[in-house]
Design a protein that fits this description.
Strand order of the largest sheet: 2-18-12-15-11-3-6-7
Distance between the termini: 60 Å
Strand content: 15-25%
CATH topology of the largest domain: Spore Coat Polysaccharide Biosynthesis Protein SpsA, Chain A
Mean pLDDT: 92
CATH superfamily of the largest domain: Spore Coat Polysaccharide Biosynthesis Protein SpsA, Chain A
Helix content: 10-25%
Shape: globular
């Protein structure tokens, strides 16, 4: 027996969005995706429609150094756009993640501003409705000589899973809305007037990356390669490791174009194949390059950008698992690779991908595994690379005691241990660290007691510990 088509509540959504003064293009874009949901679309991408991408299909960063001079020559025609919409809710934050102290007393924002001060490339931030005010206040306090451009990501109303009507949450109405994913950057550039303004100023090339990925500095060789070859769009991908099985991967659609498939777009019965790093060997670093003239031409031609939909099931209040189930309609920035004829991808080293998504990541970046280099970038300590440890150590902290940033700071109040010689660190239970602790090799520290265990000042740990 066929199920009847769900009742459409589009008119209610339109009124709700109009009351928030959202641009008509944003309302039309949401309406397009809502129509997909009503028609039963899931946003899934099936394995039968795609093929893996072989290494020899992609340019390798190591072969692009010759383009560095070209990149420097077009710095004045380039904008670096930082995606700054994240709140870091998974780390217990309620403000902009970019304001967390990450290294040497500096936040992500501090480091990005310092990088921009030494460059002739224009800097812009796309904030979300959650992070805009905090970020502006922080930028005003920093008072950089060249104040960055800012524009705001749009918002979509959450959809109740029960009847596909608008979600309502009177105790906190802001929770009725969700950022529509970083794929909104293209529409936000247009509706904010930023796209036309940049083009009028002679800026043609945009490099876009996440604020929490300090490995993603603007690279002159990549810029030169992108500009010289007149690509409309270029995605940076890296070779997958077992730690990357959940990341969105690059593939080639049966129509011949490159596409991005995120985990949320993978059918449940294909997850094993999705996570097979031998089959799908490249993941999206979320560092992308886009020719702004090509983007403007796409809007002029299509009027609206239809990125592949991600129908993300959530609870209305992300901190309350008993709140009503909703769908958040989102899209991924990298998915635009399928929209441009001649789009490409380039295989980059892992050094361009050090995101901070969890307190595990933050501990590694705060440690001596990473050094703050003269060019204002964050890099793996050369001593670590010399000893055949080219990446960060694998860190697994007990989420009950280290899952939130306040808990992390409390347990490492005297300073982060030296991890430059560490391969793996696992901590179970409540363990607190005094200053100048060193951890080497692979270590598991377990405290089964109800009271905190303390690692004494100056201790060197090379074997497992149990309290």
């Amino acid at each position: 027996m066929n199920q009847s088509r769900p009742t459409s509540h589009l008119s209610e959504f339109v009124l709700k969005m109009e009351s928030e003064d959202l641009p008509s293009l944003v309302i039309d874009t949401f309406a397009y995706y809502y129509g997909e949901v009503i028609n039963g679309a899931t946003g899934l991408v099936y394995g039968r429609d795609i093929q893996p991408v072989a290494p020899d299909e992609l340019a390798s960063y190591a072969d692009l150094i010759q383009y560095g001079r070209v990149g420097v020559d077009v710095f004045g025609q380039t904008v670096r756009i930082i995606l700054n919409g994240g709140l870091g809710t998974s780390m217990g934050l309620t403000g902009a993640k970019s304001l967390i102290e990450v290294k040497s007393g500096m936040s992500f924002l501090d480091i990005i501003i310092r990088q921009a001060a030494n460059s002739t490339v224009t800097l812009a931030f796309m904030n979300s409705f959650n992070t805009h005010e905090d970020t502006l206040a922080a930028l005003t306090k920093l008072n950089p000589s060249n104040f960055p451009i800012t524009f705001v990501q749009h918002k979509f109303p959450k959809i109740l899973q029960t009847d596909l009507s608008p979600a309502s949450w009177p105790p906190k109405p802001v929770l009725e809305w969700n950022p529509p994913g970083h794929g909104d950057v293209y529409t936000a550039l247009l509706t904010s007037g930023m796209l036309d303004s940049l083009l009028n100023d002679g800026i043609q090339y945009a490099f876009i990356s996440n604020s929490d990925n300090l490995g993603a500095r603007l690279d002159e060789a990549l810029l030169g390669y992108f500009a010289r070859n007149r690509f409309p769009f270029m995605m940076e991908v890296a070779q997958k490791t077992p730690a990357d099985i959940k990341g969105g991967h690059l593939a080639r659609h049966k129509n011949g174009r490159l596409i991005l498939r995120e985990a949320a777009q993978c059918p449940a019965d294909e997850l094993d194949a999705f996570q097979d790093i031998e089959r799908y060997g490249f993941f999206n670093t979320n560092n992308v390059w886009i020719n702004l003239k090509a983007l403007k031409n796409l809007f002029d031609r299509e009027k609206m950008i239809h990125l592949p939909m991600i129908r993300n099931p959530k609870t209305l209040d992300p901190r309350d698992k008993t709140s009503p189930p909703v769908y958040q309609i989102e899209s991924a920035m990298g998915a635009a690779i399928s929209l441009f004829e001649g789009a490409t991808a380039v295989n980059v080293p892992r050094t361009r991908f050090y995101p901070v998504k969890t307190c595990n990541d933050l501990l590694a970046v705060r440690s001596d595994c990473f050094v703050y280099a003269e060019d204002e970038s964050l890099r793996i300590d050369p001593a670590r690379i010399k000893n055949n440890r080219p990446g960060a150590p694998k860190i697994k902290l007990d989420p009950d005691y280290y899952g939130k940033i306040d808990d992390l700071d409390q347990r490492f109040a005297a300073g982060v241990p030296s991890l430059v010689g560490c391969d793996e660190l696992t901590i179970e239970g409540d363990v607190r660290f005094e200053k100048d602790v060193t951890i080497k090799g692979s270590v598991n520290i377990k405290n089964s007691k109800d009271t905190p265990a303390v690692i004494e000042e100056g201790r060197v740990i090379e074997t497992d510990l149990e309290f």
